[in-house]
Structure formats: structure tokens, C-alpha cells
Protein 1
Amino acid sequence: MVKIPPYLEPGDTIAVLCPAGYMSESKAAACLETFTQWGYRVKIGKTLGGDSQYYFSAPDQDRLDDFQQMLDDDSIKAIFCARGGYGITRIIDRIKFKQFKKKPKWIIGFSDVTILHAHIYRNYGVATLHAPMASAFNDGGMHSEYVLSLRHALEGQKIRYQAEPHPFNRRGKAVGELVGGNLCLLSHLVGTDSDLPTKGRILFLEDVGEYLYNIDRLLYQLKRAGKLEKLAGLVVGGFTECKDTDRPFGKEAYEIIRDIFKEYAYPICFGFPVSHGAANLALKTGLGYKLIVSKTKVSLTE
Amino acid sequence: MNRKSFIASTVALGTVISPRAWYRTAPQAGDPALVIPPYLQYGDIIGIACPAGDIRLEEIKPALDQIEKWGLQWRIGESVGKKDFVFGGTDLERAQDFQQMLDDPKVNAILCARGGYGAIRIIDRLDFRHFVEKPKWIIGFSDITVLHCHVNRNFNIASLHSKMCNSFPEDWSKAESGQWQSILSIPRALLGDNMSYSVQPDPNNRMGSARGQLVGGNLKTLETLAGTKSDIDTKGKILMLEDTGEYLYSTDRMFWNLKRTGKLDGLSGLIIGGFRTKPDDPGEEFGRTLYDIVMEQVRDFNYPVCFNFPVGHQKENYAMKLSVVHQFEVRPDGVTLTALG
């Protein structure tokens, strides 16, 4: 059984930090403001903003210290990663989860944060929140159904999502713990201490900006590593901003995915609104869900 | 005159080399479990196949001409000339063609026409039983790293990391010295010549001496083999890496994958070949060089490390006998890598 961190109450504190890429405090302003409007206190980590000139929000040690401090602070009920980028891989093995095991809290984000979701699920069996990050709150985004889905998840509302049917869907019903995230990162984790267990689980995948042939390659890796054969079900999110080589690969992303999975029998839904695009519903990963894929609709229920 | 320049000059002039010079028995390396396929002899056959990307018949003509000059024969596989978008035929067609090359006792080596992408889609369809009984040289690099790793890991059979048909220049007079010398290192390796490379020192090299089986190839491909049946074990080995077209942050991430899958801690030595990294997008400068990325990963260890070794997606891409035990010396005056077998 996966441990569910306590849901948030008004007055609870959310830490906001950047464990990977850099984000200025101004770009996170709308998100900080919104958390306050929702009734939460916000504790801003050292890695949000700051004077980093380069790729990361701060040097590895500083990103590690910031995350560790928030992880160990019992007054913080959730850690919100303001952005992804690249960098969690560089610190994941040095994060100590001892206090977190005793007093779990919500870890929120997606993209590079997939590493945290996979690592925590695999090693500590704690639910985490795959959800929009700070930039989703900008330009009026704080009112979108996607940001609101994050709010509802934090408050403890049970997830009941419906999605439009897609011609590539494969009908069926599945029950299992929902795991997954960014395809490129899930492949990157194979064979490491953060390798995501998938047998009997409902796997969800999304990605952005990948070459089409690379999507094929990454899925072949997962397949050959035994990660796709015994799924309970598959949820395919957005594969946005795909690139193609000069000599075209010849298939679109969803066609590539459909063909990789055609040898299996479990239900698959395509076009689920989880992605690097605007559509990115909050998903409490690690928890058990029921996935129903029928001719007319798709439902994902906690 | 040393042998290397002798061969280079005679072949470049198009003369056929005396057959007597090429009769060689395969010397055995230190590891009893290692198998080196028989070196080729005058008149032996090189099969040409497309396990990954497609190629047209006209494009392999320069390679066919060269093979004849080496005193060898060629056989063109069914997948040459086939095209299924980026692949040299459907998965089934490519697998069948490669399979018949593997199984045919008259084919002494398989030269992959090009890399690209696609070897991973057929590797699990191949039956290596005949190959294990009668090993032969598998030749190529880039995507062909899939085959090299699979064959190393599962059978400990040596293979040849080198340029492929698509890199043979049509007009040798226009080819750079590094390019045609790299190509000529292919027959040297196949015909059993002593393979020893000397490379200019790089200020970032880490000194030392190592001996071990040479493994590796394309870094990105290596990452996608992690956790699969083709994943390599690097303990006590000399790991050789090259890549192209990746951003620095992605290269860093791939090195972290090597680290986190235990591929860097027990090495005998590390060889960094050509890394043609993609320039960072403005505003996304990674802030570290390839040297920084690599040295950070190896700082807890003592083994020798060299940079700019002439292998990779570049003009200089010399033939390297993977799985064969090598002696690797990194000294202030230069680097040597010598195959012991």
C-alpha cells in the first residue's frame, strides 16, 4: 500500500524551490500569489530566483541543501518544484529521505521531476503529485482547470477525470497504481536506483520536443527492459513539439506508440490531457486508479 | 618504412597486395572466454547489410571498389537498396538479411552499410547460434553499437567499431588523410594486422596505464541498452565513447546514467572519442565543457582517461577491435592503444 501524504489544510505551508533549472522569482510570482489566495503559506527556497548565470538554479550542493532542508522541515506540507529543466539526476542520490519516510509530504511537479516521482515510488512507496508547475499559473493560467486540478488534489479531492475517446484507443478496464511521467526520463532511469517498477501498474507517458525516431528508440528501450509487457493499462498523454529528421521517420508520435504497444492486450487511451502543453491535469502518482476505456469515453478514477 | 604507411600508400595507388602477406592465424588474447573471429584471408567475402538505416546501391559502390582493392570479395545483402522511410527495409526484411549473413559460412565479415536508427528494432529477432559456432566480424559504429554491445555481453565475441559504407569517399583524391587512413584501418584490422594507435596528448588527459577488454561505442545508444539483454558490463574494461548531435546538458545526463548504472566505477580506463555537441541555445548555456562533464564523473577514480581519441562521427574514425584486450597508455607525450590480439 502506498503511503498518502496528509492533504493540505488552510494555513499549511508549501515550499517553492527549483531543484533543476533556473527560474526567476518574477516568473513564479503568479503561482506564489495564487497559493496565498488558496489559503496556504508559502516558503520560498533559496533556489528560486537568485543570481545563477548558468543552466541550473544554483550549484548542485545548493540545490541539494535547499531540497533537503524543505524535505526535513515538518512544518512544510508540500514541496512545489517551480520548474523542471535538467538537474535532479545530479542530486537524487544524495538526498536523504529518512525524515520524509517518517513524515511524508507532497512532492509536486513534472518533466525533470519525473525522477523524484519514480525514485520516491520505487524506494519509499509514497504518493507524489505529477502536476503543472509555476509557469502554468502565468497569463491567467491560475484559473485554468489544470491549475485548479492541482488545488483539488492538494485538498484531497478524489480524482475523477474523463477524456475524449481517440481512434487509437484500445478498449478495456484496468485497475492499478498509476505511475509514469516523462518518457525520456523514464528511459534514462532504467537500470538505476530510481528505475520505475511497472508490472501491474497503469503507466502514463508524455514528452516534448523529441525526435520521432527517438520516441521509437526510447520505447524500444522500455520494452526491452521488460517495462511494458505486464502493465495493467497505458495512458498516453501529449507528445508535443515533436521533431523529425531530414529524412522523415514516416510515422507520427501516436502511430509510433500504437505500434510499439500493439502486441499487448491491456487498455490504452491516447490524448489524455497530461503534457508539456497547456493541458496538464494533476495526477496523484502511486495511488490506485481505475481506467476505463470504452468506445465513447475514457475515465480515470482514483 | 613502417607497415602502416606502406599499406596506405599501396592501396591508395590501387595496387593489389600480395596474397601471401595476409595469411594469419588469429592470435588469442588473455581472456580464455573471449573469442576473436578468424581474421580474413585473400579472397574472403565481406557481406554488406542494412540492419538500421537505408542505403542505395550507388552509394555503396566506393566501398565495393575498395573491398576489391583489399583483395577481398563482397556480397550485397537483400536489404541494400530497400527503403522503409528511414530504415533499410521493414524490420523483418532487415532481420532476415542480417540473419542470412550471420548464418552463411561463406560470409567472413558483415560490413553494415550505415548506422542511423533501427538496429534495436531487429536485435531480438536475430538468432546467433550459427554465429556463435562460427563467429565472424561485425563491422560498423553509431547505431551498430547495439550489435557490438549485444555480441560482447552475450557471447564475448570481438567485433569491429569503424566507418561504414556510407563513409567511403567517391573521389579519393579529395578525401582527407584522416578519412582514408581510417578506412584503410578496416582491412588492416580484418586481415589481422597489429593494431596500435598513437594519439597526440590532450591537456585534460589523466595519466596512467591500463589493460582490459575494449568496449563501448556510441554513448546515446549505450544508454538505451541499459537494463536490456544487450547492456554491457564494464568492470575491468576500457570504455570507449563517442557521440554526435547532443546538447551538453544531454551529454551530462547520459554520463549520469553511466554512473548510476555502475558503468564508470570499475573501469580499467576511459577513452573519450569525438563528441560533436550541439551548440547551446542562447539563454540555455550549460556552463560546463565536455572535459568538465567527464572529469567530474571520474574524479573519484584513478584510471587513465584520454580525450579526442580518433573515433566517432568525424573524418578520423579508426577501426577498433571491440572486446579484444588492449593496452592503454596515457603519458604526457601522448596516448597509445594497442590491441593484444
Protein 2
Amino acid sequence: MTRRESALRIARRGAVVTGVALLGLVGIYIRALMFTPIERFQGPAQKIFYVHAPMAWAALLAFLVTGVLSLLYLIMRDRKLDLIASSSAEVGVAFSLVMLTTGPLWGKPVWGTWWSWDARLTSTLFIFLLFVGYLVLRGALHDPEVRARFSAVMGVMALALVPFIHVTVYWFRTLHPEPVLMKPERPGLPGVMLVTLLSSVAVCTVLYIGFLLLRYALTVLQDLKEEEMVDGVS
Amino acid sequence: MASPLSPILAIAAKDLLVERRTKTAFFSSLVFALLVLTILYFARDKTAVGDLDLAPGALWVTFTFAGMLGLNRAFALEMGNRAIDGVRLTPASATEIFLGKVLGSLIFVGLVELTAVPVFVLFYDVPIWRQLPLLLLVIALATVGFVSVGTLFSAMVVRTRFSEVMLPVLLLPFLFPPVVAAVQLTRSLLANRPLSEVSGWLSLLAGFVIVFSTFSLFLFEAILEE
């Protein structure tokens, strides 16, 4: 199978996975709005949480994938790893944007302010900025081999940076609700809400995979086009 | 037999010699630092924000931006006539080239900082003498961290278009932890508080320097490859 055929096959799979995830997202909206009770203290605004937290999870996952694949690229020097890492970064930007817009929408009624310099909020803002920096760097480099190497270095550095940013802001001050899910005792969320949240996390993960497959297929096709152009010139 | 340090020293000396002959970057960075210190002094309501509250942030914003000017130059001067190829042809390893570049930039940025500090004291009227050795330690630590990461990124961005814009975009997120830690430490030291109150920030700063100097050192080889 040629590279083009395999890219097209990946694109078709990506479209199916994305379609399934988008249907799932519709289901999540319906479940969150109609079949999940309204939270006592935060009111209807809390519903955003079912989109916001899973999107944040998907953005973090994208960031982790980019960082780890960058490291693997530097060890194995496989072009494919670089292309998946960059696709993941691009998808991550989209998820980060949803996270960064839904957060303030929730923050205004609940915290009384659109934005707060809380540890998780600031860390995710930096993740977004690092993703953008990574993509800007790629855009400014022409040679695909140099682009892959340099952006892998950036990816690894960014992965190492995030814990430092988190600690820095955490020590500065923090305001976010205490973790409701990942804590040592039982999750502090009632069963119905927990099911909605976990289903949404699953749907967003599938959506990430779908987007990643589509973006990766597109990147491979772009790559082929670039190679054709270089061959045409030489 | 040549000392193992000699390639590192030779590269640093070469960079500093180029700078000594022109002096453009040094004086530009210095004048820039003085301008930032002056502008920041006026960028507040003096009745609401006291000198001592403003001073630590102003100092570190100044160091960060002035240092970035110097770092931009570290590899930019290697791109003219592809001088970097000459450096690569020497027996110096990637590690030695990196350390030489870091040393050169450290001396450059250090000199800018040492010249700017007395002006900072004069402008902001801060009692710097109370804990001067500790303050110098904080400045030295933060500078090493930021120059190491900056050297790595400087080597990357010279290969891109618009490198002057690219360096701050890539580097500033990495300066966030060391600069915040340095500001907290400076604030506490200027107020003559005991170091134990802010020992966490000192550990964070030291941790950052160790982790990112090491990362930059190892990743530099991937940047220098041809």
C-alpha cells in the first residue's frame, strides 16, 4: 500500500471515530442538561463542568502525547512520531481553546470573576501558549528534518516545564475547587453526576483520537505534496 | 596537554572578543535595561504602590528583557558567513560548544546585570546591603537557569524567520518559574526577612536551574546536528 493510500485509509477511520464521538457529545449534552440534577451550590452554571473538565483532560492528553512522542522522536528518529506529535499539538490547541473559553463562562457566576490566576488555570494557559509556540516554531522552519528535530526539543522542554509552572502558581495562591475526582477518598460527586462526567471524559478521549487520526492523515498528505514539489523542482 | 576546559573557554573568549570589538550589544542591553527601569518606575500610582513593592518585579522584568537581547545575539553572530560551520569543524564537542556559549552569555548578561543593579538601587532607593550576598546568589542562580535555556532556544531560533520575535515567544514561558521565584526571594531579602520564610522558592529556583540546565545541555546536540 502506498503512503497516500494508507493516509486516506487513516482519514476514513478518523472520520468514523470523529462521527461516533460527535454523536456521543450530543448524548452528553442531553444527559447533562436533562437527566443530571442541578448542583445545589453552583446552580445551572455547573453543567459547563461536564464539557470543561473532559476538554481539559483531552488537552492534557494531547500535550502528554506531544511531549512523549517528541522524546521518542529524539531517540528513534522516526518521521511518523514527529508527524503524530505535531498533529496532537494542533488538536490540543483546539481542546485548550474550548477549555479556556468554557472556564471563564463558569467562573463568572460561581467565582464572581471571569478569570483568576489559580494554579490549574494558569498551568493550562501556559500549556496552550506552549502548544502555540511549538506550532509557530514549526511554521517558521522549512526543512522537514530540522523542523522535526527542533520541535521535538521544544516538546520535551515543554513537558518538563509544566510541573514547575504548576508548583509556582500553586505556591503563589490557589482558588480552584478542590479535586472532586482524583483524590484519595471516595469521589465527592454524586453517582449520577459522576456517570455523566466519566462518560464525557470517554467521549472527549474518543473525539481526541478521531481528530488526531484526521489531522495525522492530512499531515501525511501534506508531507507527500511537499515531497512531490521538491522532486518536481530537482 | 590542553585542559579539558580550554575549548569551552576558547568559545566563550571568542564571543566576548567579538563583543569587545563592537560593544554594540552590551551598550544596547544596558541602555534598554535603564529605560525599562525608568518606565516601570512611572508605570504605577505612587501613592498606592510603594517603591519596595514595585522594585523586585521591576528588577526581574528588566533583567529578563535585557538578557533576552543578549541571548538573541549569542547565535545570531554565528550565522553571518556561516561561522557556525567553523565552530562545528573544531574538535570541540556539542557539549563543549554549549558550555562555551553559556559561559560567554553568562559573562555578558552578568556584566549587564552588575551595571544595572547600582542604577536600580539609585532609582528605587532600596536597601540592598542588608542581605547582599544572598541577593547576589539569587541573581546568579536565576541567571544561570535563564541563560542555559536561552542558549538552547537561541540556537534554534536563528534558523527560523523572524528570530527576534521567536525567541521571546518560545523562551518567556520557561522564564516564568525562575522569574516568579526570583521576585519572591528578592522581595523577601529587600525587606530583610529571614531566608527560611522563602526557602521553598529557593528550592524551586535551584530545582529549575538543575533540571533545565541538564535538559538544555543534553538536547543541544540535537540542535547542532546537520
